[in-house]
Amino acid sequence: QVQLVESGGGLVQAGGSLRLSCAASGGTFSIYRMGWFRQAPGKEREFVSSISWNGDTTDYADSVKGRFTASRDNAKNTVHLQMNSLKPGDTAVYHCAVRVRFTSSWLPLFNADDYDYWGQGTQVTVSS
After folding, report:
1. Which helix (H) or strand (E) holds 23?
2. Exposed/middle/buried for 34, CB within 10 Å: 0-12, 13-18, 19+?
3. 117-118 and 92-99 as β-strands: parallel, antiparallel, unpaired?
4. Helical H runs in 3-115?
5. In this structure, are strands 78-83 and 68-73 parallel, antiparallel, or unpaired?
6. Residues 36, 49: Cα–Cα separation, whole Å
7. Which of 52, 67, 121, 126 could serve as 105's disulfide partner, Cβ 3.0–4.6 Å?
8. Residue 53: count of CB within 10 angstroms of its CB
9. Residue 26, pLDDT score
């Protein structure tokens, strides 16, 4: 079993920044991709970003391109999501997810079903 713990959420004014982190633990496993999804009240969960474990491939939703940056620290089994120029529309619970099934590093994974384990989420609230 893989455990994922997110941190870094909070309340910020529009235009501000937050840095989310997701630490993976729990046994021997290979992580091929880590992703971030978000879910706002009354809306479906949507893809935000993902990064391959070797860091050579990152993907972003159009709504966050140029504002969010994913990075990883393999030594700590941790990924980060730097969120800048935040907007009220970014308000949501942010979940990290990992894929432990083999996948090529270049293959984009945009769907929740592509991932195997999920964190509980961290709330991000952006005030106007």
Report:
1. strand 18-25
2. buried
3. antiparallel
4. none
5. antiparallel
6. 5
7. 52
8. 19
9. 84
How far CA 99 is from CA of 27, 51, 107, 110, in Å, comes to 15, 11, 12, 12
CA-based nearest residue to 38, from 127, 128, 126: 126
Looking only at the bridges linking them, the beta strands covering 10-13 and 122-127 are parallel
Residues of the chain scoring pLDDT < 50: none
| Lookup: tokens for 97 | 């997810």
- Measured between alpha carbons, how far is 42 from 49 in angstroms, rounded to an integer? 21
Q: Sign (positive/negative) of CA torsion 60, 62, 64, 93? A: negative
Whether the CB-CB separation of 21 and 34 falls below 8 Å is answered with no
CA 92 vs CA 1, 85, 110: distances in Å: 26, 15, 18
Angle at 114 between CA 92 and CA 48, to 5 degrees: 30
